[in-house]
Amino acid sequence: MAPPGSAGSVDFRSVSTPTPDGAGIGRDDVAHLARLARLAVTDDELDVFAGQLDVILGSVARVAEVAAADIPPTSHAVPMTNVYRADEVRPSLPRDAVLAGAPAVEDDKFRVPRILGDAE
Question: pTM for this structure?
Answer without folding.
Answer: 0.41
